[in-house]
Specification:
two-stranded antiparallel ribbon; elongated; alpha/beta; about 25% strand; 2 helices; about 120 residues
């Protein structure tokens, strides 16, 4: 089947996947985003001829063929990558995901359970 190349040459920025915010050296909090929507959008845009930049949090999905992949872990890293790349894009697609803001003070040692009374 042929795909119309109606996005030929259009630069598109897409974010996908979860972010992970460490609160000590061995644990983090995350959201439930799988990245599937962002990866599907990147694949469809590429198929239609777009030049895709994909900014992705950690996911087990197969990475779509895109012009530029930026892998991030934290919300701050994702924000920084978007800020550094959005001016180059004509279209920006950011599928909804649970907002997580980064921890200001990450503990240097694993936190212990509080003692029960």
């Amino acid at each position: 089947m042929f795909t119309v190349k109606d996005l030929a040459g259009v630069k598109i920025l897409i974010t996908a996947g979860p972010t992970q915010e460490p609160f000590d050296p061995v644990r983090h909090i995350t959201n439930l985003s799988s990245g599937k929507m962002g990866y599907a959008l990147a694949t469809a845009a590429k198929r239609r001829g777009a030049q895709v930049t994909l900014i992705s949090g950690p996911t087990a999905l197969n990475i779509p063929k895109v012009e530029k992949l930026i892998e991030v872990r934290s919300a701050r890293q994702m924000h920084k990558a978007v800020i550094e790349n959005y001016k180059k894009a004509k279209i920006i697609i950011k599928p909804p995901r649970s907002p997580i803001t980064g921890q200001k003070n990450v503990q240097k040692k694993k936190l212990k359970k509080p003692e029960s009374k």
